[in-house]
Write a structure and sequence with these properties.
With about 230 residues, the protein is mostly beta strands. The protein has one domain: Beta Barrel (Porin). The protein has 2 helices and 14 strands, in the order αβββββββββαβββββ. It has an 8-stranded antiparallel β-barrel with strand order 1-3-4-5-7-11-12-14. Strands 9-13 form a two-stranded parallel ribbon. A hairpin with a 7-residue loop joins strand 7 and strand 8.
């Protein structure tokens, strides 16, 4: 019995060591160009503008077939938008009413990565889902040149009351985000790589309002440029 237990432990240790030896770790960072797109409570399209943010974190890639890898990691990613309506169920009547929303997330990508050789390096083609968790954020509200900009703290809730909706000190969003990523790029022989990323959010980030029939719908969309290094 002791011999069998020792054999099982030895196999587990050897397997873990082999997997660890195959996993390639790296670091990544770059700018984000994010937007939140969707509809207001009346079904009209929200007109938003790009927000420049950033992403940075670590990656881990494990081979699953020749030139094919499973890649995951942890990324701090800033998302949001600039708009002239405000994230409200009806459009604002005054075009001078602007909001700038910045929310920081921890994103966990779950990608398939195809890396065929090309020249002295590798082409990078990847796609797959991601999951995001909101950490913190703020929303700056500008009512025009005659009034000071007001900063609201982001709070995360799936449903809010009418009183919370009209609070001036807070803005409410759902905490969890999810969607799909796609990217292309190139890795040099030294391990340095560059890629262009696109992200399509699939979850509505606006909480529902109790006793309100209409519902705004905004999703995180955007693209980014990444630079990274694999150790």
């Amino acid at each position: 019995m002791k011999t069998k237990i020792l054999a099982v432990i030895s196999i587990m240790v050897l397997t873990a060591t082999a997997l660890q030896a195959q996993v390639e770790f790296g670091v990544v960072a770059g700018p984000n160009f994010q937007n939140m797109v969707g509809q207001d409570g009346n079904g009209d399209k929200m007109t938003n503008g790009l927000l420049v943010g950033f992403h940075a974190g670590v990656t881990a890639s494990m081979p699953i077939a020749p030139d094919l890898y499973f890649q995951t990691g942890l990324l701090l990613s800033q998302k949001g938008s600039r708009n002239n309506e405000g994230l409200i169920p009806i459009k604002a009547a005054d075009d001078e009413y602007n909001t700038t929303t910045r929310i920081s997330y921890i994103d966990i990508p779950l990608h398939l990565l195809f890396m065929p050789e090309f020249g002295s390096g590798h082409i990078l083609v990847g796609f797959g889902p991601y999951m995001g968790v909101g950490l913190f954020g703020s929303e700056d509200v500008d009512y025009g040149s005659n009034t000071p900009t007001m900063e609201q703290k982001i709070k995360f809730k799936g449903e809010i009351t009418d009183d919370e909706y009209w609070q001036m000190e807070n803005a409410y969003y759902k905490r969890f985000d999810a969607g799909a990523d796609i990217f292309v790029g190139y890795e040099m022989s030294m391990g340095l790589w560059f890629r262009l990323n696109a992200q399509l959010g699939l979850l509505n980030m606006i909480p529902s309002i109790m006793d309100y029939e209409g519902e705004s719908n905004l999703k995180n969309n955007g693209f980014g440029i990444s630079a990274g290094y694999n150790f």
